[in-house]
From TrEMBL:
The keyword Acyltransferase does not apply. The keyword Glycosyltransferase does not apply. It is an enzyme of class 1 (oxidoreductase). NCBIfam families: PRK05363.1. It comes from Nitrospina gracilis (strain 3/211). Residues 113-269 form the Oxidoreductase molybdopterin-binding domain. Its EC number is 1.8.-.-. The lineage of its organism: Bacteria, Pseudomonadati, Nitrospinota/Tectimicrobiota group, Nitrospinota, Nitrospinia. This is Sulfoxide reductase, catalytic subunit. Keywords: Oxidoreductase.
Length: 323
């Protein structure tokens, strides 16, 4: 059993890459192996597929509820133009300034974050404000898997399979009022747990915002998982925003509060350094940055260099919002 090796996307030649072959989640691995071969191999009692294929890294313990929703259905509509980043690389090179300014240290320090119980307050200019227990999201919204690129303003990039649901589904439920123009997101504030938050000159807690149009865009999701399982803490467990046409800093992690407002909210990085972190933050190779080249990006893990595309390549879905 343990010898069976199903190659992952980053081990495959470019010519063989198709959305369905880039990575297999737990259910697909089982299917590919075939129940019959499990019998033949005499491995039925354990009935567990090879570990290195399923939970490469990091270790994630699923709750009973999570076991019923992962892996989620894969939506193949959003295509990648490159192979997926290795799960282990994505999980060990992170920006999460609450825990460390050193990307390679975030995965270690972020394990202190207590992600249960976890509540998300959805409030502001809505008809039906509500505080959701995290499990409510898993019960209420249909999770789906989408392959997206993520482009950090620091000129590194990755391509990963997120699991989540459209932010629009949540907003529709709380019913934004007619005067609402923006949605503001706020992360947790626990300086004794996340020592980066002792930096009193920084506007903690981390916050970000989108226009109402951007928030309702079909690409905008709240992610609860990655690589077919719940988010490891360093990726922003238990729930984070993902807006793939914007620089990575918009995709706020570990969200605890979502507020619908009628003004343009200030945001963490834009407050600290407006010349480096524009409020809108759409990926744009034509807008130079004082520190990092914006015309190119380097894929983490493979160091492959790609030309950065306007809207991170998602113009078909988002360009119309900016005309
Ligand atoms: N709460 C919070 N969210 C955050 C950040 C952060 O420091 N704190 N960093 C942002 C930046 S700059 C990037 S590039 C992405 C990185 O996401 P990843 O570590 O899952 O790849 O998270 C974003 N979300
Ligand atoms: Mo970033």
């Amino acid at each position: 059993m343990s010898n069976i090796h199903i190659p992952k996307g980053w081990e495959m030649p470019e010519s063989e890459l198709t959305p369905e072959s880039i990575y297999m989640n737990r259910r697909e691995v089982l299917k590919a192996m075939g129940v019959a071969s499990l019998f033949a191999a005499g491995a039925l009692p354990a009935c567990s597929p090879p570990q290195e294929v399923i939970d490469a890294h990091p270790e994630i313990n699923l709750t009973d509820l999570e076991k019923t929703v992962y892996p989620a259905n894969r939506i193949t509509k959003y295509k990648l133009d490159r192979r997926l980043t290795s799960e282990a690389i994505a999980a060990s090179y992170n920006n999460f300034y609450e825990f460390s300014e050193v990307k390679e240290d975030v995965d270690h320090h972020a394990q202190r974050l207590q992600t249960r119980p976890w509540q998300v307050e959805v409030t502001g200019l809505v008809n039906k404000p509500k505080t959701y227990d995290f499990d409510d999201f898993l019960k209420k919204f249909i999770l789906e898997e989408r392959f997206y690129r993520l482009r950090c303003v620091e000129a590194w990039a990755m391509a990963v399979p997120w699991t989540g649901f459209p932010l629009k589904a949540l907003l529709d439920e709380v019913e934004p009022q007619s005067g609402a123009t923006h949605v503001r997101f706020e992360s947790f504030h626990k300086p004794f747990l996340a020592q980066g938050q002792f930096a009193f000159w920084q506007p903690w807690p981390y916050s970000e915002a989108l226009t109402m149009k951007e928030a309702m865009n079909e690409l905008t999701i709240l992610a609860t998982g990655i690589y077919g399982h719940p988010l490891p803490k360093q990726h922003g467990a238990p729930i984070r925003l993902v807006a793939p046409w914007k620089y990575g800093f918009k995709s706020i992690k570990s969200v605890q509060r979502i507020e619908v407002v009628d003004y343009e909210p200030s945001t963490f990085w834009n407050t600290l350094q407006p010349l480096e972190y524009g409020w809108e933050a759409n990926v744009d190779p034509n807008v130079p940055h004082p520190r990092w080249p914006q015309t190119k990006e380097e894929m983490i893990g493979t160091k492959e260099v790609r030309l950065t595309q306007k809207y991170n390549g998602y113009g078909d879905y988002v360009a119309s919002m900016y005309t």
